[in-house]
Amino acid sequence: MEISVREGFREIVKRDGKRVGFNARKITGAIAKAGRATGEFQEDTAKILTIKVLSLAGQLELGDTPAVEQIQDIVEEVLLASPYKKTAKAYILYREQRKGVRQITSKFNVDLVDQYLSRSDW
Question: At what angle do helices 68-81 and 85-118 cross, to 10 degrees?
């Protein structure tokens, strides 16, 4: 089953602000990974759920270039509305964990740069 992309979504804005090509297969991959982790479904169901995500995204006022977070929010909505509650919970928890890791990594990198810049033994 091939997934068609809404005409307007040619790009997506990543967290760092970069614009990259919109790839619906990445949505399918994330959904399938969550479904496999919970044992609730495989790739075929993930493709169907991806179509629902793209359909809902097309109905919302996201503009021509949605942000990654907007698409992930829609994935959450679609999973919560589906019969796959364990997968919805796993997906939401995974996103929260990744957010925490990004925050820690960002703070760690800033602290390292600050330490480097404040060294007096240059």
Answer: 150
| Residue spans of alpha helices (H) in the chain | 24-38, 43-59, 68-81, 85-118
Contact criterion met (CB below 8 Å) for 3 and 51: yes
Regarding pTM above 0.85, the answer is no
Tokens of 12: 């997506």
**What amino acid occupies position 61?**
E
Q: Tokens 């169907």 identify what position? A: 48
For tokens 């967290």, the residue is 15
Question: Which residue type sits at 5?
Answer: V
Q: Of 79 and 107, which is predicted with more confidence?
A: 79
Residue 34: closest CA among 98, 100, 88: 88
